[in-house]
Structure prediction request, 152 residues.
Amino acid sequence: MNINKKSFIMKYLKILVFLVIVMLSIESYAQIGVTIYSKNSFAINTSQNKKISGEFKTFANCDFEELLMEFDVFYNFKPGKHHRFSLGMGINGTPFQGFDYFQALTIPVSIEIYPLKEFRKISILFEFAPVIIFEDNPYLRNLLGIRYSFGE
Prediction:
């Protein structure tokens, strides 16, 4: 790996760390969650108890230079006893690959189901998202995940 490529990767890694810290500090007093998805991906999200929440996903099923990352903003509808619907918009890209940082827009629709009545910290998450790729055909992505929410 040459010097320019290393400095390029370090520059965008610093930007990524900064964005994650900003996202977490915006709602640091609130509930934070971690989600593990079915397609070798994981996410950190802010509180779903607010009307607007954010989620940062990393799809870790490829080489480091092709690592796909996504940032979504969700509108959370009023929750039911055992579920919650959310509708969002996001952007994803590969920050460590060449000059094409952003690859697609996403419109995720998710339902979060709380299988345990008295313990709402664990939930099952189903997400469907049209992915509108800038230089290719759009497709429909589906994710299945398990979320653990910290805090109240």
Summary: The chain is about 15% helix and 45% strand. The CA atoms of residues 38 and 144 lie 5 Å apart. The beta strands are 33-37, 41-45, 52-59, 68-76, 83-93, 102-106, 109-113, 122-133, 139-149. The mean pLDDT is 80.
